Fold this sequence. Notes:
With about 110 residues, chain A is mainly beta. Chain A contains no helices and eleven strands.
Amino acid sequence: DAGVIQSPRHEVTEMGQEVTLRxxxxxxxxxxFWYRQTMMRGLELLIYxxxxxxxxxxxxxxxxxxAKMPNASFSTLKIQPSEPRDSAVYFCASRISLDTxxxxxxxxxxxxxx
Amino acid sequence: QQQVKQSPQSLIVQxxxxxxxxxxxxxxxxxxxxxxxxxxxxxxxxxxxxxxDVSEKKEGRFTISFNKSAKQFSLHIMDxxxxxxxxxxxxxxPDSNYQLIWGAGTKLIIKP
Lengths: 114, 112
C-alpha cells in the first residue's frame, strides 16, 4: 500500500487567503485524523472521522478551520481566511478503526502563512 | 489529569550508548502506551507499544519499561546509532477511548 498521501507537501500563502490541504488515507482504514504540529504546542489533534463521519472536532482552533470527508478515500482540511499563526505542519493519519490498530501518518503538509 | 509529561526535551548520546527517555502520566484509566519515532520531514511512525499487563517489552534494540505504581514508562535504546537520531514521542490512551494523549517530544541526537 502507498501509505497515507497528503498534498501539497509545502504551501506558502498570504494572510487572508484560503488554504486547502488534502489527504488520502490507507485503503481499508475507516478512521481518519487531522493533526497540527508546531514547536510551541507539539502535536495537536484537530478533528477525527469514523466511516466518513466527523466524530469530534473540539480540537479545531477556530471557525476558520473546517474539515470534510466526502468518501472513504479523501479528506480535506480548509482554512479560510488563513493567518500567520496557522503556520505549522499539518498531518493526516489513518487507522483500521477508531479504537484498533496502529496510527499511520502521512508525511505532512508544511503551511507558511505570510 | 489528561497530560503526559515527557523528558528530557533533548538528548545527546554517543554512538553505542544507551538512550533513555521518560514519560509520566496521571490518569489511571490509561491503558495503552505507544512510542512514535519521527524523522525530519516525515510523519511520526509507531516504534513500539505496551499495555500495563507487562512491565517490559523489547523489540530489537528498543525496550519499553513500564512502572504502573509510579505511573511512569520509559523508552530505552540500546547500542544507539546515528540512524536513531530523531524526535521521539510517548503517548497514552484509555482502552475505551481512541484519542491518544501525546508527550511533548524528545529530540535525540546520536553522535558518531
